[in-house]
Amino acid sequence: MIRAVLFDVGGTLHEVHHDQEMADRFSQRLLDILSAHGVALPIGAAALTPLLHENAEAYKHWSEESRVELPSPRIWSEFYLKDFQIGEELLAPIAEELSWMYDATRVKNVPRPHMRQTIETLHEMGMVQGIISNMISTSFVPRLAEDYGIAQYMSCLVISASAGIRKPDPAIFELAAAQCGVPCREMAYVGDTLSRDVLGCRNAGVALSIQIRNPSIAHRDTAFAGTGLAPDVLIDDLSEIPGIIRSYNQPK
Q: 177-197: per-residue pLDDT in tens?
């Protein structure tokens, strides 16, 4: 019996669209904030944008291997801005602001069709709901849930930046289960990746793994081709979820 449905954020509740102009504006804002705090970097926004991307990819690879989410001052000091040797103590007062900006303003986040309607329907069905998200910002997901009008339906918001662990580590799913009051064996989880979401479900013993198609991040799952790892259900639209849960919960 499924009693809870939990969601990933990026690629699941919304699609993430990359835009060069937005990325360069973010880089310039980052330079301005650093300068205001006494750190002037010897680089322009146009050159900083691809460097940030390269360093962020290095951190993503490291964190996926280790399943550890570092505190944001360390992320910015040791990875994103590692070329400039800025100490954590200088970055600490602004690291969370930079982390929120990185996911909120550097890219365009577009809510998936039927996102809010699906969550409202699941609420009407009596489902406990929540979010498990790999995010370097502690504030991005709570603010997003408010902006999307779904915060009132969420019994837990488990974010790697706060937990210090990342999907696919089973511990982050178990933490969400404890906060929601529903064990993993009675939970469905909706995400867009094999490498983090489906594998995390398998590691944690989540009852039902639902993957929503997201061709833009398929390259991150190439290592799992031919391994047999697959979701229980593959969907194209969030509106499919209530019917899937009803079918799963029908007496066998």
A: 999 999 999 999 999 999 999
